[in-house]
Amino acid sequence: MAYTQILIAGFGGQGVLFAGKVLAYKGLTENKQISWLPSYGPEMRGGTANCSVIVSDTPVGSPIVSEPDILIVMNLPSLDKYENAVVKGGYVFADSTLIERKVERKDVKAFYIPATKMARELGVPTLANMILLGKVIKETGAVSIDGLKDALVKTVSAKHQDLVEANLKAIEAGYRYEE
Amino acid sequence: MAVVFSKPKALTDAPLHYCPGCTHGIIHRLVAEAIDDLGIIGKTVGIAPVGCAVMAYDYFACDMVEAAHGRAPAVATGLKRAMPDRIIFTYQGDGDLASIGMAETVHAATRNENITVIFVNNAIYGMTGGQMAPTSLPGQVTQTSPYGRDVKTVGYPIKVCELLSALDAPEYIERVAVNNVKNVMNAKKAIKKAFQNQIDGKGFSLIEVVSSCPTNWGMTPQKALDWVESDMIPYYPLGVYRDKSAKEAK
Amino acid sequence: MAKVLMKGNEAVAEAAIRSGCRHYFGYPITPQTEIAAYMAKRMPKIGGTFLQAESEISAINMVYGVSSAGRRVMTSSSSPGVSLKQEGISYLAGSDLPALVVNVQRGGPGLGGIQPSQSDYFQATKGGGHGDYHLIVLAPASVQEMADLTAKAFDLSDKYRMPAMLLADGTIGQMMEPVELPPETDGNAVEKPWAVTGTENKREHNIINSLYLVPEQLEVKNLERYERYKTVEQNEVMFEEYMTEDCDVCVVAFGIAARVSKNAITAARAKGIKAGLIRPITLWPFPKDIIAKTAERVKGFVSVELSMGQMIDDIRLAESCKKPVALCSRVGGMIPSPDEVLKAVEDMEGGKF
What does the pLDDT look like over C39-65, one tens digit per residue? Predict the structure, then answer.
């Protein structure tokens, strides 16, 4: 039975919480048990943000992810902070445009995606988070790539529905990316 | 025998507990007469304060709520929002309205809550035995200003009508007194208008009634009424401070 | 109905609306702001009231006004704001008025922090304001329970004419989980002949009041109220038992602490330690009987709390100090990890406490 604990971390404004929501909604459409827990603080932009997502076949216990199976980091401080928390044999996904160093641990699977650069080139500069997510889905199978659009339609607020396609495009680019 | 004078229907038969010479009785009667005249007793809910008028809930025959000290305008807000077709009034003293409840007063006024506020200003805390009120006059001797209110250390009295008139929202603000027949007649008119405004959906109406407290002022009732004329009214000038509808009609 | 994904705070707001609550008063404070934001959006569209009050004190007194009129009403805040509301809560209790107060707790005392906490347990369960009184206190441990217990709180509050408190924390308020929302009701199931809706010249005037200057009368009022409280204690206790049938060590925890404890219990069981959990859902009335019964056969209890140890007193009272009770806690916005709880369970199992 799968019980996947995911931690996504970066600067506020990078879409860390949103990426977690997409995972959560996708899990919901797959009839999984899920929880989504954001960090919250006084700042809206620029500070650190992280979110815990659990996608599981069994009921979710604590919603706090302290030992992630999958770590997604979008800045260096987040990699420094959480690298050692990842379980043995777990996954680390790093935005290599913003994080120059490599993952030091040898007992985890590390993936480097120049997500911020790719997003700029794709003409969707704010969607590096979705590019990373595409790669996560490809490598871990935490959720399925099929039917992602339904989850996106639910995650994206009503007034921004025109952005669903751009998000989908970014996820697909990440999904196809090979180092 | 023909009845030439009777108690308003909006008052119960409960004997009032107020001190001899206190003007709360007159003001209760004026409020009750306004309710009777407008025929609204069955749809009126009154709110009693904490202070001398705390037991007003026993005296008014309409539905009544007893509020925490100073919170009557917030309670009135809740009642009015829940029942927009009901007539809601508060009856508050100076400590209740202008000290501990100042925030509730100002904000209810600035929301132009469609309620009627009867504000009794006798420049002293009566129920607790004569302490300094936010409206006690400069130099006034009270239990907690035994050497007279020293404006250098405790500040000046708050002129509620003037203060609330600085707000854009309120519909009607008037200061009246009940120290002589002419003023009582005028007070009755003002109080009735404050209720009529609510019936017409016009918004926040506050009537400040300059009143007396012979017991805690240490005066005979007549002397207290004289002091209202000689000392209170000069500091708290009577008159209409805000009448939005009348202004707009011009 | 299909499940939807919602934040705990939003689930409270939607469940309240579905329970017939059409009046909300509040003042902004983290981490409960989503409740106010949700109400601000929805209430105007359904003919309800959302009003951002000038203070917590005003908000609770607006609640007092609406409740006096016999309508369902709520306010929400977080710890420092709930302290400000205590005056009004005491008046609600003293006037036998129903209402819902939601506390999405954060660390304290003072301004404290904004991260989750359970350190308002004493305030919620032992009174909080002045005078002898109780609130019905419900402690949700999931987004689903944020919705379900909101509906339940309104029902119990109306039924027993006493204010109810939903005692959540920052985690449960902020997290999203799938939730099935409660059915729509008009909230008028309980008759309220005491309400001040205007006499319509058809009855004596109603008075909503907590002042009784004659001590004999005030004593009678208190005694009557405590008779009612006794009925609540007999009929309304709610708790969840998790793997307690054969447990040697019984963890007691509510809210987010119970979620963490479940992970620890799974880990303990994997190591061959028979651990179980009693999760109080009503904190008042506290599930005393099940704790007393469990005390007969376990080695000891572990109280897991996000406080310096508040519920632990109630556990000890419930089991009359028959068995040891250890405290496993983090405070100030910190949450115990499953490992920390596991360690406490292992220590209790090994007789180290």
Answer: 999 999 999 999 999 999 999 999 999
